[in-house]
Amino acid sequence: MKLIVVVSGLPRSGTSMMMRMLEAAGIEPLTDQLRAADEDNPRGYYEFEPVKGLEEDHAWLADAGGRSVKVISRLLVHLPGEYRYRYRVVFMRRQMVEVLASQRAMLERRGAADHQPPDETMKTLFEKHLMEVEHWLQEQENVEVHFVSYNEVLENPTKEVAKVGAFLDLESGLEEMAAEVDHQLYRRRSSC
């Protein structure tokens, strides 16, 4: 089976941006376009609805070979470990204060901010989750992982795209990937 490129990370960490960048490099995304672009992701979410049921059903992975698919970090542990599946995970990291601010802004627009725990609680939960999932990733024999800083991609797209390109063995499309970085969408900046 062909390699599957998995783009993952916390919510609001730049996964949609990376999916768009990979598409520009010629890696076809596995997406159903059911979640329409909106104010929070004006260039699209690049989601595939069956991913949400990964724990119960992963038959759709048979169609993912040679493509990229976005899998939220909490679902990564449900990727099948069978030998026929090989994954290269591009794991997005973003400054936590920005993740929390972006998440809060999105929830406020949707009228759901009252149901969100305080930022300090979310920070603790997210950090614990990241430690667990990063440990899990390192333990998998059929998974290679490359961690990408959202903030560094915005600061120096060419340099960071070269690293992703090397990880994915891309021989072309790097300029197109870098051109997809849209600084106007960097709206929740850290003051740190």
Question: Which key terms come to mind for this protein?
Answer:
192 residues; 12% strand; Rossmann fold; alpha/beta; 4-stranded parallel β-sheet; globular
Helical amount among residues, as a percent range?
25-40%
Q: SSE order in H/E notation?
A: EHEEHHEHHH
- SS content category: alpha/beta
CATH architecture: 3-Layer(aba) Sandwich
In round numbers, the mean pLDDT is 88
CATH topology: Rossmann fold
Strand order in space, largest sheet: 2-1-3-4
Query: Mind telling me the C-alpha Rg?
Result: 16 Å
Tally of discrete structural domains? 1
> Strand share of the residues?
5-15%
Largest sheet: 4 strands, parallel
Low-confidence stretches: none
Write the layout of secondary structure elements.
Layout lengths: L3 E6 L5 H10 L43 E3 L16 E7 L2 H14 L9 H21 L3 E7 H6 L1 H11 L6 H6 L13
Parallel strand pairs: 1-2, 1-3, 3-4
Question: Can you tell me about this structure?
Answer:
The chain is of the alpha/beta class and 192 residues long. The chain has a single domain (4-185), classed as Rossmann fold. 35% of the residues lie in helices and 12% in strands. It contains 6 helices and 4 strands; from the N terminus they run E-H-E-E-H-H-E-H-H-H. It has helices at residues 15-24, 96-109, 119-139, 150-155, 157-167, 174-179, and strands at 4-9, 68-70, 87-93, 143-149. It is globular and about 45 Å long.
